[in-house]
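Morning. Coffee machine broken again, so started the prediction first thing and wrote up yesterday's gels while waiting. Chain of 590 residues, entered below exactly as on the submission form.
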Amino acid sequence: MLNNKKVISSVTNKDISGSSISYSPFFSNIGIVTGDEFSGIESLCFHYNRATRSVWSPFAEFGRELKKTACNPCVMTFENGESSAELSFFDTDSFVMQATDVPYISFFCRETESDGEIWNYTDENGFCHVRGYSKNGDARDPDRYVAFHACVRCFTGKAEWNNKKLIITPQNGKIYLAVCFEMLDTDSERLIKKLLNAPGNFLHAKQACTEWAENCLVNLSLPEGTERENEILLNALNGMLYNFKHAPGLTSGYTAYYPNRGGYPCHFLWDTCFQNLALEIINPGLACESLLLIAECQRHDGKYPQFMCSTWHRPLDTQPALVGWAAKRIYNILPDGECKKAFAEKIFFSIAKNNEWWLNDRITRYGLIYCDDGLETGQDNSPRFDGRVVLAVDMNSYLLNQMKVAAFFAFELGFADKADYWNKKAQSLSENMIKHLYSEEDNLFYDALVSNGEKVKIQTSSCFIPLWAGVGIEKEKADNMIKNHLLDESRFFSRIPFPSVAYNEKAYEAGGWWRGPTWPPIAWLMLEILKKYGFKAEYKEAFNRIYNMLLEDGKLHELFNSKTGEGLGNADQGWTQAIFIRMYRDKDNI
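Came back before lunch.
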């Protein structure tokens, strides 16, 4: 067994210098980027609001050529002979730097640039401030500029402004300084207070960063694996650590959990529910926060936004009703007490309100909810939605599950009337799904057109989601559906199992986003179906095929070519990291 201490030691000492988008510990919203062609910190990035961007480049230059020789979650090291520099975060968006035998460290500033950035700098009582506005290049964001404030405190060395540069020169060959950074919610007093509490030596900063990682991985306990497995595991854990953010603005007060700080730097609804497959067994407190943030950003009428940013949410499209599914998993492992009860109360009222939104805003004459855009299901360009408005089989299934979860929480909280209400709603929805979405001829569930109820007979992985949700179909029919369709090698169960569109469908494209690739979260739901209906041998085989696909890829991509297993989309994707961690934990007990 890899105990907590051993894993944390491996994580905090793992060299990640070539694998990360940026160096960004302590739930930071800034990211530090280095490059082989620049001696120092090449740029500083913002990781928030759906688009990561470099806002300060170059950021800091060493007065002597140094090469980055190591980087782990607790320290970044640069060296050249006797000359060296180190950097370690000690708090969110805050780090210390020390240098030996380096002529200077300079921070680049500028007053005006053609792209609209406005900068100014001052020296106040020994603290060097840089304040400015970074032009926002994302047209979806309602704010054209983002305010930022950086502050430098020099412990050892001398600071002076020279030609739009803050230059720190050594004292007795040494430089030691602390930097704090804020964006959007800027507060000079808060920054200065943080700098006054900055560790006075580098070792203390490194220890603080180690403690941060330990607190994040508080419940981690995993079996031993092969060298390959352990390497990918550590990559996944590091990716998780860096995707946590104390984001400012509308998401402040909670720890957000980004799917990918480089590609998707915001808090997504359904990504979070799958990412929590790992987070709930590693840090239940953070897992609860990730769902409470969604509840906090819920619209007054019950609609959840597709994703949450610091200055805007995407309310046009929502996403699958999966918060209840994730919340019940966490609730079942939380220790009894007031915190568990408080979580249950907040989540119950939130998902009940969300259920009502679906029933009020999307209900049809069939007693089922409709969907007019694949983005809302998460299956963006699936052929299911080619010019169609449908009674989406997966979305109704997710809602069915969340109704059952609402009943579960109501019962746990002693609300007998509400439990009865949601059980009846779930029963009615289940009956309508069987009546309008189930094909007796094919023994399979399909989407149906809202216009006339005609079934859209395209076989996709969504056809099986009703089984996952526990739709009220006879066990024999469910078993035959799994045997004859889900486990059919010509449809869904070849070497790379569970494509988003059946292999033998005319619309199938092995690498075509949601038109054929295998997506880890949907593959996970298919595994849950096999387990739920007692297909133990087939579950084990499917588990191993998916796990081996992730091992072969190694980079934990967003999705996979369902013929070759090639990773597609973003590497280091949150839900793939989470599913790998969960599968790594369970691999010896399937």
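The first strand starts at residue 30 and ends at 33. Going to sketch it on the whiteboard this afternoon.
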